[in-house]
Amino acid sequence: MEQFSSMFVEIGLNEPQAEIVDNFLATARNAFGTNLCSIILYGSAAEKRLRVHSDINFLFVLKEFRKEEVDSIREPLRQARAAAHVSLMFVLEQELQEVARAFPVKYGSSFGRHCSI
Question: Helix 74-84 to helix 15-32 angle, to the nearest 10 degrees?
């Protein structure tokens, strides 16, 4: 399992925060398995311009939404939100183009500055 702690420290998190975010991402990858198409970090964190009160924004692209998978990441997500202001959105792979057309300002500006992890 790849760890991204050093990347999160580089963008401004301290080591304990980075470890919590890493644990959350590892739990999510395990929970969603092959249903997870991509995890995208976007916003100021992706630009390495994180401020004290900035959120760390992730978009999870899924093949299909399965409530039991989402429920299984609830506690690690709560910890990541508390420790590092992690914010999470879900979108289905087949909805990406439609969502981008429906919300061009949100997705045009937010996802213009992103990185896949």
Answer: 160
61-103 confidence digits (pLDDT tens) = 999 999 999 999 999 999 999 999 999 999 999 998 888 788 7
Tell me the CA distances in angstroms from 74 to 33, 49, 90, one per residue in order: 16, 27, 14
Instruction: Name 39's bridge partners.
Output: 60
Contact call for residues 33 and 27 (beta carbons, < 8 A): no
Kindly report the pTM of this predicted structure: 0.84
CA pair distance 70, 82, nearest whole angstrom:
18
Residue ranges and CATH numbers for the domains of the chain are: 5-116 (3.30.460.10)
pLDDT higher than 80, residue 115: no
Tokens coding 34: 């092959």
Query: Which position has the higher pLDDT, 95 or 111?
Result: 95
Nearest to 56 by CA among 1, 104, 14: 14
